[in-house]
Amino acid sequence: MVTCKETRAAIIALHKNGFTGKDIVATKIAPKSTIYRIIKNFKERGSILVKKASGRPRKSSKRQDRLLKRIQLRDRSATSAELAQEWQQAGVSASARTVRRRLLEDGLVSRRAAKKPLLSKKNIRDRLIFCKKYGEWTAEDWGKVIFSDEASFRLFGASGKRLVRRRKGERYHQSCVMPTVKHPETINVWGCFSSKGVGSLTILPKNTAMN
């Protein structure tokens, strides 16, 4: 809390006249923590003047920092340079490096976007129905089930990397993931497993329909 010079002078005057910290607090001239801090600073420096902060002044205010955070959360994949440019339009002249520091202060770290299957509303509804239907099954019940699936694999191609800024625990936040879809191209395979172990992997002939 910042106090005016007159208030600081009054607190020190009472202190010099024998008033204890508790006595001065009772006058309610300022909050308890402020009174003790002013007395402590006076004892250490012999002055009631507020010590000026060292180092270069901060380029942005707290309000401007909050604006930067809103801009970033609106587009998680925006680069530091892009954010700096948009922030500049709001009146803040800062480099991409400053942008990264401000975001780090708020826990926003650049990470590769997690890949997550793109689900339609029907997919989500079907999964919810499945969970409600089999939610009470025991490990013994599931031990009687054989799980099978088909998949397509590309032998080559870009992995598709993308960086996003996220906080701890936001790995699968909707705005932090990169939706993926299957693109059968070269090899189609079928496999299965159960509680007894993994079955053999079967390579399917070309043009075999997978259901």
Structural class: alpha+beta
Shape: elongated
Runs in which pLDDT lies below 50 for 5 or more consecutive residues are none
- Total beta strand runs: 8
Helix content: 25-40%
Query: Alpha-carbon distance between the termini?
Result: 68 Å
Structure commentary:
It is a single chain. With about 210 residues, this protein is α+β, with helices and mostly antiparallel strands. The chain has 3 domains: about 5-45; about 60-105; about 115-135 and about 145-205, no CATH class. Helix content is about 40%, strand content about 15%. It is built from 8 helices and 8 strands. The strands form 3 sheets. Strands 3, 6, 7 and 8 form a 4-stranded antiparallel sheet that branches. Strands 1-4 form a two-stranded antiparallel ribbon. A hairpin with a 2-residue loop joins strand 6 (about 185-195) and strand 7. Helix 1 crosses helix 3 (about 30-45) and helix 5 (about 80-90) packs across helix 6. This is Transposase-like protein. It holds the Pfam family HTH_Tnp_Tc3_2. InterPro entries: Homeodomain-like_sf, RNaseH_sf, Transposase_5, Transposase_Tc1-like, WH-like_DNA-bd_sf.
